[in-house]
Amino acid sequence: MNLTFTSDDDGARLDRALAARLPEHSRSFIARLIDDGRVTLEGKPARASMRVAGGQIAAVDVPPPAPTTASSQEMPLSILFEDSDLVVIDKPAGLCVHPAAGHAGSTLVNALLFHIHDLSGIGGELRPGIVHRLDKDTSGVMVIAKNDAAHRKLSAAWGTEAVRKEYVAVVYGTPQKRRGTIDAPIGRDPRNRKRMAIVAGGRRAVTDYEVIEVLRHASVVRCVLRTGRTHQIRVHLKSIGHPIIGDPVYSGPQWRGIPDKRLQKAISSFGRQALHAVSLQIPHPETDKVLVFTAALPEDMRSLIDALR
After folding, report:
1. Taking the model in full, what pTM does it have?
2. Known catalytic membership, residue 135
3. Model confidence at 99: pLDDT above 90
4. Structural element, H or E, at residue 19
């Protein structure tokens, strides 16, 4: 494509000026096109740092998205919403988001590649754009971008008041304060790099919580994230003395101290952390319309709560 710059572009870097004209592509993708020799300015090879002037013409050759390295796999997927920009799913517990060591297949990305047929490329690769993540054993609402522009707009909105993430957890005991805010920084645990912890030099993390039902030796707690740190809810609830039932990292066999053997069995047999992303509010990346998606508690958490009532 040929793009003609105007006086408004005078003095701008070429990569910035092109990114402004091509919002469907990221600036880093534009820079790669320039480095690969796919951009000329006034018919001559271009550099990203070149300054442009009104009236100059840039020729940009955008190749089709490269095939992804991940494979498409037919797997069941609960799709809550889909349009040309995004897809929203209800992720089941036990499903990894990305292929990785030990999880080369049968991940969310593999399933999405089978179900989504109109991907337009993320960063030059034909793949779904993961905007945020849920831990493998956390269930609930997730949003995925289908193209670069949607991915960048949703990522920019993340961490702002435009996005609201609500979770439901089943925790040991009942917090003394039935409603409150946990404002404590989170970083890598200096004693175990595979865990997160509240550390003085960590990144600020803020969780609003509310007890919505008191159970026997446990409670159902609603959590709203103001920030999005790794394992934030799990670490914060542990920090106030009420870890999530079934959490293999941040809780232990507290069920052993419960005198009722039936409750012991219900808790000890629960095979994951009892945490579910129940609601997600986002602005639509194209229209800015506020969208709210919800996912009902899965059967395993409903059964756990029933057993503890």
Report:
1. 0.82
2. yes
3. no
4. helix 14-21
